[in-house]
Here is the input.
Amino acid sequence: MLGKLLELKSRLNSVFRVTEEMFDMALETHQQDRQDRAPNPFNRYGRKGFSQGDEDGLTLEICRRLELETGTFCEFGVGDGLECNTISLAALGWRGFWISGRPIAFDLEGVSPQAFRFYESWVTSANILSLYRQGCSDLGIAGPDVLSFDLDGNDLYFVEQLLEAGVRPKLFIVEYNGRFIPPARWSIRQDDTHSWAQSDYFGASLQSFVDLFARHRYRLICCNAWAGANAFFVEEGFADRFPEVPDDLLDIFQPPNYRIPRWYGHRKDPRTVREVFRRVPVATGGDGRDRRDA
Here is the structure.
């Protein structure tokens, strides 16, 4: 009897694995179709590397047009640190820092603090500017070239604080709530204790972000097609480098599609990301050797 049960379990596991694979294949086809049908031609640059969806490809193409071969980044909200918007930049030699309210899945042994810093802290309206300034100061930079923001809550208010304080990255990436189609304006009520409950009560509408960034002379370039979750803004002075981007916001907006493949490549390993940051070059001294503090 036990043998038959074990055999049945094995067969069910095989069926489950095949079903998962078929689901992922269908989902990947659907995501590619969303990208191909997007009214915004810029969406075709979307590619997935370490980002949750196709954000990496969009980020890299924007940076190429901004003539940023290497630079610096700041990312608020990185989950466990294995899937976010700036790992691919670090893999290209960029330096930067992360700020997030939960631990990351890898230690920083062998990672130079001149190349990368991580600050584990619950972000509030009272500490966001001090956390940001500490990261910049510790890296010895005036401000990052790329800033990505995804805290699943008070994002509109926090981004406004940064902009009002004079924070001006060349590229600003924010998560929007795709439930609200432009020109709907909406955001959650500001609450420093807010914790996302995996519901649609999070963040702010795309139109609300567009209004905020317009006041600070930024232009929306793209929303990622795979998930309809992240919006990419550049300073207005660079807008002419993106001539294909439509003028109509509805042609840039992407509705939400939060289903993501269960597998993308092999299983994520924390050692992979740690090794990315270990290899980020840092300033050299007169003898040509890296000045690493760790």
Observations:
- The first strand starts at residue 72 and ends at 76.
- Residues 136 and 179 are 34 Å apart (CA to CA).
- The first helix runs from residue 2 to 37.
- DSSP finds eight helices and seven strands in the chain.
